[in-house]
């Protein structure tokens, strides 16, 4: 079999019987293990065709079957953290036939989504939200007098985030009817870091504890005179062998760890724990990528995949030519670190995604992966900057939202020398609204002392990163996912003047003021419209002189950005014009005021009118309106 000759899809006789979890609950117990095999095979086959998140789902096949077997879903609530692992859940809850449209326009989301299914009890995409949401549901059930089980499934990587601990700290004393399942696979996206992760990893050897506890309890319980000491002995043994006391001190009855791939054991344990009152936590040990050798061997690489050949695991590369913006950043930070020993690289659990693998290997003492802790990442950088270091925080736009207070209070308010390399700015295609970087210009440009830049191409990305780094204060460079227009890099320490744009094309009547990723399509539209095109480069400070010059020489100013129109770069341009008392026709093109569903990136841009054709259409419609307005006084005069 070759890459071009896929095998016939396997048959799924048991899976074909399941339209929803009631069908699953009707199966005999003897059918569940074969069902797990079919579910895993179907998942591999399906994701090999569409791409998506693979390894996480493979690790929770048995858990997903057990949850829908034991609990009366959707009456009982299951809340998945992040949602990377939720594909088996989707398959078992009536969406198997729709998996061919996964993460595509008009298809189903790659994450649990309330509007998609009653079984998706909470919309997710970002990590560490499940415990708070599930606690809220449990409290609501109590207040409404409803009897239902609430289950939160969270991974060891997500558990390290502050929000998860806030929920545990708050929830335990409330004595909610809440089951937390800790899916411990020793992985998040990048390999996990931090004391808690190491702590949980040590429990793998703690299976001795489980065997010793059960055997010794039985022996002691058989002796009536020692029965009273069993409970006290168990607590001492827990403290000796494993830190379950961490959870129990927070008020959660801890059970585990157990093998998360032993389906019979998981079902039996969940059945028992379903009857237990109050807050409890089940600790499962699972393997990310379970059942597919390439994913087992490289769970990070197979966390998120493009379509791939099932037999070989080889992914079909759909990326454009040339380096991605992420790769440009990765090369730049290593180059800059070699020139400046003060440079520190920081990422919140996104080493691979942010392009920091090479840097982490070359400069391990200056590389800090803080785990899924965006707030901590930004304030950690602020503390380093106070001591004369020059930290660079590599973070996705949608994840920077989680550290907004830290950006405001800990960095910008103090004017500290922190560089933010903001990846995935703008639309992100198949990951959809939860991961789109739609708002960073809107929320960041309000901050005093902050320089904000948006490169038009790969070489400008390098130059603006260097410019931001050399600036002795807070600076943010935002760049999109994927490849750029293919401009060759000129490596080195060259910087660009802060707050200065450039004219890329001279025209008449119309001026297109483009920011970042929208410069190339604006240039294409400019040629069609015979319009002037400006690469603005900086959102803050804006090139006011250039804006005033363009306003003086053109009938219409058009701003184009891959950010929300509300409060974005276009709004900043209008503020400049208003401050100078200029009454100029303006058209702002950007992301609409809605949550844009998943689709291909280029499809999304077309829908928003942000490709060249969309820009041309919008500008021509606006010019027709302007011309009609210019004709209106003459029509009134003729009527008089």
From TrEMBL:
Listed GO CC annotations: cytosol
Cofactor, how bound (note): Binds 1 Mg(2+) ion per subunit.
UniProt xrefs under Pfam families: DXP_synthase_N, Transket_pyr, Transketolase_C
Cofactor(s) for this UniProt protein: Mg(2+); thiamine diphosphate
Binding locations of Mg(2+): 156, 185
Domain spans labelled Transketolase-like pyrimidine-binding: 323-487
Keywords: Isoprene biosynthesis, Magnesium, Metal-binding, Thiamine biosynthesis, Thiamine pyrophosphate, Transferase
Keyword Magnesium in record: yes
Binding-site residues, thiamine diphosphate: 84, 125-127, 157-158, 185, 292, 374
GO MF entry, a single one: thiamine pyrophosphate binding
Enzyme class, first EC level, given as a word: transferase
Stretch list, region Disordered: 293-320
Catalytic reactions of this protein: D-glyceraldehyde 3-phosphate + pyruvate + H(+) = 1-deoxy-D-xylulose 5-phosphate + CO2
Biological process annotations from GO: isopentenyl diphosphate biosynthetic process, methylerythritol 4-phosphate pathway; terpenoid biosynthetic process; thiamine biosynthetic process
EC id: 2.2.1.7
NCBIfam families per the UniProt record, alphabetical: dxs (TIGR00204), PRK05444.2-2 (NF003933)
Binding partners and assembly: Homodimer.
Protein's recorded name: 1-deoxy-D-xylulose-5-phosphate synthase
Annotated source species: Thiocapsa marina 5811
